């Protein structure tokens, strides 16, 4: 947490480096505009867009206006865009040039009275030169802080290089590493659900929970990201960050407070408790796939290698049976999977409870299941057994019913308009502006996650475990099903 007394009455400036890029246009500008509309930005907050392109403020602001309208047009109120546009200035600066810092400083003005948040929405290869420019120009002093995006490296060693270069300019408390999953409403709700209720905590362990499944499924292929993706694959692109962050929130011990260090101390313990996957068990505990020809996202797909134009050892699907070696979770596996060109776009968590120890209802009693959907809809439901209504000659019959905890459905049920579904970056940008880093990833978390993932990749290499092809539009290779079905009575919740 950045000291609020340090930020105090200073004027806030949000410097969006890479302000003309894809992430900025699709996510960051619309998020900032919505924060403005909802009154979360200080009246005098300024926004500086930085990129090499010398398009001028007028043109840049027009593009931003279009991007905001495209993304959140239905929610825009009259006057929002006009007010928002006035906050923005575009400055053309090339990070490869030495005058970057001095020119930005001139644009910023009286730095002693400013509270500057830098968002580096650029390639990670630019983090080091940009942080050096910021430091040389003296723009790195507290309370100023920096937000960086994934990927934080492609293994432990390269993540340390990136983290070291950022740490030279900004201490850890002022380094905000975004994992946008942490800004999603339902992900934040996991903390509320687990630690705001007394009913779940006594059941939240291997005595009662049979296993946990987490799926992040995408229907699209790699598209224009092929160059980047071929270097990373599904395990580095999705599992090392988003999937493991979800594991942390589900598996961590109750923190002593909602403060950033209390939360992150508990998350990192989970990552450090993940059982290493080695050459001895990698074939049983992991599955790698690569999409081949098929039909996905409404289109025929030629297959990954055809799209690339050459053979590739990159996986577009990964499934892992993760085990957490501690008292709470020993014996309860977490099955994780993610992939591209799958049949549906969804992110969901299934907490599968154990069957009744003794059923007085024969085989009709099904084990409870907590189902948390993050995408495409945000919804939480708990399946519970009920008596089927009515009278039958054979006596009582059971039926399984969903107890819905969906906020949206609750509003609809009351005849009220459901709240707007926020972009995950809105929460995170607001937290960064306020100096609250609880929902950002700490360096030790990134490194513990890489350490575990590096071990898996190393075992794939040592055992020559290549990705198995799966037809585009299916839920991954056969080995992905075997991974879970090998354990009796367990199947993916497709
Ligand atoms: P992008 O579309 O390529 O945009 C990059 C931005 O950086 C542009 O504004 C570009 O403008 C600017 N830039 C490039 N070289 C520069 C230089 N030498 N000096 C100053 N500015 C420079 O990239 P992106 O997709 O927005 O991604 C940005 C970051 O977010 C990356 O770290 C990426 O890995 C991460 N990310 C992106 C997404 C996504 O959905 N796009 C998702 C997750 C993470 P000029 O060319 O005019 O300089």
From TrEMBL:
Please give the pathway this protein is involved in: Carbohydrate degradation; pentose phosphate pathway; D-ribulose 5-phosphate from D-glucose 6-phosphate (oxidative stage): step 1/3
Q: Give start and end of each Glucose-6-phosphate dehydrogenase C-terminal domain.
A: 192-492
Where along the chain is substrate bound? 180, 184, 218, 237, 340
Which InterPro entries does the record associate with it?
G6P_DH, G6P_DH_AS, G6P_DH_C, G6P_DH_NAD-bd, NAD(P)-bd_dom_sf
Q: Which UniProt keywords apply?
A: Carbohydrate metabolism, Glucose metabolism, NADP, Oxidoreductase
Q: Which GO terms describe its biological process?
A: glucose metabolic process; pentose-phosphate shunt, oxidative branch
Is Oxidoreductase included in the keywords of this UniProt record? yes
Where NADP(+) binds, per the record, is at: 52, 150
Record family assignment? Belongs to the glucose-6-phosphate dehydrogenase family.
This protein is called Glucose-6-phosphate 1-dehydrogenase
- This chain's source organism reads Asticcacaulis biprosthecium C19
